UniProtKB/TrEMBL annotation:
This is Adenylate kinase. AMP binds at T31, R36, G57, L58, V59, G85, F86, P87, R88, Q92, R156, R167. Residues 30-59 are annotated as: NMP. It comes from Pollutimonas harenae. It is found in: Cytoplasm. Belongs to the adenylate kinase family. It catalyses: AMP + ATP = 2 ADP. The keyword Cell inner membrane does not apply.
């Protein structure tokens, strides 16, 4: 199974990805998590990416496409995977198509903008795994502590309100067009097109 989770920042892509990848036994390919790992390791890519991520902008298509291309050659990706936060621009989606990747589903998580700021402001993450919690909606068993490792949770650097507003604007301009891109492709009846599904992101975390 190969699928994309599409949706604005804070929609719950990472949260739902954890359930779906466990159910289907496939890896989660989160370009955001990959970039945060590079930032933490202070690689040249990470240092460059951090400047962009802190403003809420997008890292260049060439860098992201290269990262994903390398990731897809790894052994655990041969029987399927879930993309979280990729593709995020039309050129990224075109690159995936040109690489001949045959997707089964594109799932759009639909959440109104007014819910997003509150979700992101209460988010706490476990940096090593990318697991997300929420202080109110999805609290860890012990405050500020990852359920599985017992390690501390932190707030993401790009979760400041001003950065979040910019991430939302960037989503509207550069990523939202992928909703039409994939839904129109699915409606065209082309046998290569993945099925398109919308999922309400307003239910409980584990609905
Ligand atoms: P990335 O890490 O992909 O961030 P994002 O798309 O902004 O999405 P988030 O991780 O903020 O939200 P999410 O949808 O995963 O929500 P979550 O499950 O955590 O990207 C970060 C940056 O990296 C980008 O800004 C860009 O600079 C760069 N980047 C990454 N990929 C790139 C690419 N392909 N091209 C270029 N640049 C790229 O949930 C949010 C909160 O809500 C949590 O607290 C959660 O507990 C809570 N929650 C979840 N579900 C529910 C629910 N049903 N009810 C109530 N609360 C809920
Ligand atoms: Zn995420």
């Amino acid at each position: 199974m190969r699928l994309i989770l599409l949706g604005p920042p804070g929609a719950g892509k990472g949260t739902q990805a954890a359930f779906i990848t466990e159910k289907f036994g496939i890896p989660q390919i989160s370009t955001g998590d990959m970039l945060r790992a590079a930032v933490k390791a202070q690689t040249p890519l990470g240092l460059e990416a951090k400047k962009i991520m802190d403003t809420g902008g997008l890292v260049s298509d060439d860098i992201i496409i290269g990262l994903v291309r390398d990731r897809l050659t790894q052994a655990d990706c041969q029987d399927g995977y879930l993309f979280d936060g990729f593709p995020r621009t039309i050129p990224q989606a075109d690159a995936l198509k040109e690489a001949g990747v045959k997707l089964d589903f594109v799932v759009e998580i639909v959440v109104p903008e007014e819910n997003i700021i509150e979700r992101i402001s209460g988010r706490r993450v476990h940096p090593a795994s990318g697991r997300s919690y929420h202080t109110v909606f999805n609290p860890p068993k012990t405050p500020n502590t990852d359920d599985l490792t017992g390690e501390p949770l932190v707030q993401r650097d790009d979760d400041k309100e001003e950065t979040v507003r910019n991430r939302l604007a960037v989503y509207r301009e550069q990523t939202r067009p992928l909703v039409d891109y994939y839904s129109e492709w699915a409606a065209s009846g082309n046998p290569d097109a993945p099925a398109y599904r919308q999922l309400s992101g307003l239910g409980a975390v584990d609905d």
